[in-house]
Amino acid sequence: MAHPSQLGFQDAASPLMEELLHFHDHALMIVFLISAFVLYIIVAMITSKLTDKLILDSQEIEVIWTVLPAMGSSQIAILSLRILYLMDEINDPHLTIKAMGHQWYWSYEYTDYQDLGFDSYMVPTQDLTPGQFRLLEADHRMVIPVESPIRVLISAEDVLHSWAVPSLGVKVDAIPGRLNQTTFIVNRPGILYGQCSEICGANHSFMPIVIEAVPLPHFENWTSLMMAEYT
Amino acid sequence: MSSVLKLVAKQVRSHPALIPLFIFIGGGVTMSVTYLCRLALKNPDVSWDRKNNPEPWNKLEHNQQYKLFTVNMDYSKLKKDRPDF
């Protein structure tokens, strides 16, 4: 989750988010270089005592300030297209989960496990235990195994919602009547938080997504427990 | 048409800085137009001939690659996991 006064991205929990972080750093560096250069030129122009009233054009500088920005832009464009195509790849998911948005909670269906399904409501602020995060905790977490490709199918039962988990680099709209698909791999065990990202009514800010990534044996234990309770 | 080209050639000779401009803008326009034509002609969501090829999106093989390039994925290795109709 984000920490107070955080400016940058959350730590990446999936390889795709790592790629996004690196691309962002690369593009931001180019932008900083250009901005620093422009700022320098502005200051140099303003503070210079040299003037030449007879300069009309210059072919050399025109070539330079055509070629250099084109090279900078193509640097950004090529990497951006690479990561765009990378985001669309689906590498044989091991598990499929359906995340359905409701007003105002998420429900998760693990139909690979015989009809397992449960709702995930936000823990109200007055019911939080010490150490829990306000407006981010949910009563049932979406538990998944680490280092396995997971496919999540996202839809909604009433109005538009959006299933977003920033540390995985995932944000997918939940549209009633439509099934959207996303795949990801979680690199490390941990708890990942996200919030509904499409305005959906009074409690839009109060329907968080909590993913708990655990090693596979733990996941299998959890599914056995949940199947006993919820199927 | 050739008078336009002659005019452009004359301007380029006196302003050679226009050459990289033509290269980059021309390249960009070429790439955009080529991609549009690829979308129009090869996209399986597009149906030109409603009588002979009404639903081309149903004719995609499970390991057929439509995307222009792939980073990590080998389409030829995909297994078929959907039913035949």
UniProtKB/TrEMBL annotation, chain A:
PANTHER family: CYTOCHROME C OXIDASE SUBUNIT 2, CYTOCHROME C OXIDASE, SUBUNIT II. It is found in: Mitochondrion inner membrane. It holds the Pfam family COX2_TM. One of its GO terms (molecular function) is oxidoreductase activity. Residues 1-91 form the Cytochrome oxidase subunit II transmembrane region profile domain. The gene is COX2. Belongs to the cytochrome c oxidase subunit 2 family. The chain crosses the membrane at residues 27-51, 63-85. One of its GO terms (cellular component) is mitochondrial inner membrane. CDD domains: CcO_II_C. One of its GO terms (biological process) is ATP synthesis coupled electron transport. Residues 92-225 form the Cytochrome oxidase subunit II copper A binding domain. It catalyses: 4 Fe(II)-[cytochrome c] + O2 + 8 H(+)(in) = 4 Fe(III)-[cytochrome c] + 2 H2O + 4 H(+)(out). It is a multi-pass membrane protein. PROSITE patterns: COX2, COX2_CUA, COX2_TM. This is Cytochrome c oxidase subunit 2. It comes from the Eukaryota. Its main location: mitochondrion. Component of the cytochrome c oxidase, the last enzyme in the mitochondrial electron transport chain which drives oxidative phosphorylation. The respiratory chain contains 3 multisubunit complexes succinate dehydrogenase (complex II, CII), ubiquinol-cytochrome c oxidoreductase (cytochrome b-c1 complex, complex III, CIII) and cytochrome c oxidase (complex IV, CIV), that cooperate to transfer electrons derived from NADH and succinate to molecular oxygen, creating an electrochemical gradient over the inner membrane that drives transmembrane transport and the ATP synthase. Binds a copper A center. Its cofactor is Cu cation. Keywords: Copper, Electron transport, Magnesium, Membrane, Metal-binding, Mitochondrion, Mitochondrion inner membrane, Respiratory chain, Translocase, Transmembrane, Transmembrane helix, Transport.
TrEMBL record, chain B:
Its main location: mitochondrion. InterPro entries: B12D (IPR010530). GO terms for cellular component: mitochondrial inner membrane. It is found in: Mitochondrion inner membrane. The chain crosses the membrane at residues 17-41. It holds the Pfam family B12D. It comes from the Eukaryota. Keywords: Electron transport, Membrane, Mitochondrion, Mitochondrion inner membrane, Respiratory chain, Transmembrane, Transmembrane helix, Transport. It is a single-pass membrane protein. Belongs to the complex IV NDUFA4 subunit family. This is Cytochrome c oxidase subunit NDUFA4. It comes from Lates japonicus. The lineage of its organism: Eukaryota, Metazoa, Chordata, Craniata, Vertebrata.
